[in-house]
Amino acid sequence: MLIPINNTSYSTVNGPGYRYVLWVQGCKLNCKGCFNPETHSYNVATTMEIENIASEINSNPLIDGITISGGEPLDYSIELIGLLKLIKQSLTTIIFTGYTIKEIAKDAEKLKLVKNVDLVLSGRYNNKLEHPYLGKKIMNVTGRVDYNYFMPKTNIEYSIDQSKVTKTGIFKTS
Question: How much of the chain, in percent, has pLDDT values that exceed 90?
């Protein structure tokens, strides 16, 4: 099963521990000031097989978990549920979504995905807030991820691959 992606990387600022981060491509929410606007377009240049993503994740013994961001991950619920079934269950899973808890509760596929991860940060991005996490609701689904990690602070890293440099993490908006 294919999933459109913007980028994959390893990170220590997108959740606790050493994480594999998957940014999906495509978001119709277009939150004002979003710091991932390059992930909004649905004109996909890159897709990956979820089996290949799972293989990369499972073959790296240093990974503590995966973080899925975007774009809008919940728009790819079926694909991401498939991916989560293929990765080691010892890995923690986090999703960043712009959908609100009420919106998720009204959509069976989105709700099914949320029930299959450890922690979800939900709600539209608000660029008027001093810190992005202040506007998010945390759904601590399993208790396996310390949600205190997401208390406001500033963590930034740059991911460099063969074709681009990606600024990732959380930085103050004001």
Answer: 67
